[in-house]
Amino acid sequence: RAWWLGDLIGALLVAPALLVWASAPRLRPPPYRILEGLALGVLLLTATIVVFGRPVTADASTFQHPYLTFPALIWAALRFEQRGAASATFVVGLFAVWATVTAHGPFVRPDLHESLLALQTFTGVTAATFLVLGATIAERRLAIHDVQLSAAEQRRLLIERDVAHKRLITVLDQSPVGIGIAEAPSGRFVFVNDEAARLLGRRP
Question: pTM of this prediction?
Answer without folding.
Answer: 0.69
